[in-house]
Amino acid sequence: MTKRDIFYGLMIALFLAIVVSPFASPWPDGLEKVAQSKGFMDKEREHPLILSPFSDYLWPNLDNEKIATALAGGVGALFVFIAGYGMGMLIKLLKRK
Amino acid sequence: MHIPDGFLTVNTWGPCWLVSFFGLGYCIKKTKEVLRDRMVPLMGIMAAFIFSAQMLNFPIAGGTSGHLLGGVLAAILLGPYAGAIVIAVVLTAQCFIFQDGGVTALGANIFNMSFIPAFFGYFIYNITKNIVKKDKGIVIGAGVASWLSVVIASGVCALELAISETSPLKIALPAMVSVHVLIGIGEAIITCLVIGFVLKVRPDLIYNK
């Protein structure tokens, strides 16, 4: 893969995370919906085990929810890009040994 | 389909953690054998793409939404082992940074959304690809495998909920599967579109073409 390929690939991902994701459906997903309708949603732990920085895919302390989603999404996409790339490089390094 | 903390009891999430931990170790070992240079940046791009695509909930019937899981997509481009690793990276980030999916349930979530599509889904994809030849086989295989893996994953999720006595199997199984039969159609459409696009612009990126 050339640098240009990597750039285009990352741009597509960032476009989805930053521009499109604020307009995603706010409805509950399949499992949440089933948990609500079958009455076991209340089993979810009230206090999370760990404090996540961007809970519910929102940048904290921002009034505009669309911008909060776009920011959290963009940072998240960049982070997993680095993490995925890093895993690949790590495995490549292990291979050389 | 990200299970939060509290839905699963330790007799369920414990074994799931073990299976996912050792399963990922095995995936790393196997990826070492098959890793090609072009796969390294592609692992980053696929992680970013699938993370972003998972944020895009699309509405399905009855006030419910679904989103891409992406396991079959990752496996078609990276092979099952590196594909499973990429989805596990995404799920781990979602759990710790975005509070999407519980810490205790992470093992179960990796099993359902990474291992089932990357291994079972990839297996179905390969069978279909061998029956329907050429590019058509790749696209049809992608569609069949991604739909089936979402439905099977939802069934396994229901089973985990039942073992934890969160919801009895006779209630959770039909409810989960009937919703995900529809969500799986979205998964299949997106996976086919992306694979079709890759076949057009960069067919060399398909693993084992």
Folded structure, characterized:
Chain A is an all-alpha fold. Chain A has one domain (3-43, 65-96). Chain A is built from 3 helices and no strands. Chain A has helices at residues 3-20, 30-37, 65-96. Chain A is extended, with a radius of gyration of 18 Å. Chain B is mostly helical. Chain B has one domain: Orthogonal Bundle (Arp2/3 complex 21 kDa subunit ARPC3), CATH 1.10.1760. Chain B has 6 helices and 2 strands. A two-stranded antiparallel sheet of chain B has the order 1-2. In chain B, β1 (58-60) and β2 form a beta hairpin. Chains A and B meet through α1, α2 and α3 of A and α1, α2, β2, α3 and α5 of B.
Query: Taking all residues together, what is the mean pLDDT of chain A?
Result: 93
The general outline of chain B is globular
Based on DSSP secondary structure assignment, what is the total number of beta strands of chain B? 2
Annotation, overall tally of beta strands of chain A: 0
What percent of the residues of chain B sit in helical stretches (DSSP H or I)? over 70%
Summed up, the helix count of chain B is: 6
Question: What order do the SSEs of chain A take from the amino end to the carboxyl end, as H and E?
Answer: HHH
Outline type of chain A: extended
Strand line-up across the major sheet of chain B: 1-2
* Uncertain spans of chain B: none
Structural class of chain B: mainly alpha
Largest interface, and how many residues on either side? A-B, 59 and 66 residues
User: If you consult CATH, what is the topology of chain B?
Assistant: Arp2/3 complex 21 kDa subunit ARPC3
Order of helices and strands of chain B: HHEEHHHH
Number of domains of chain A: 1
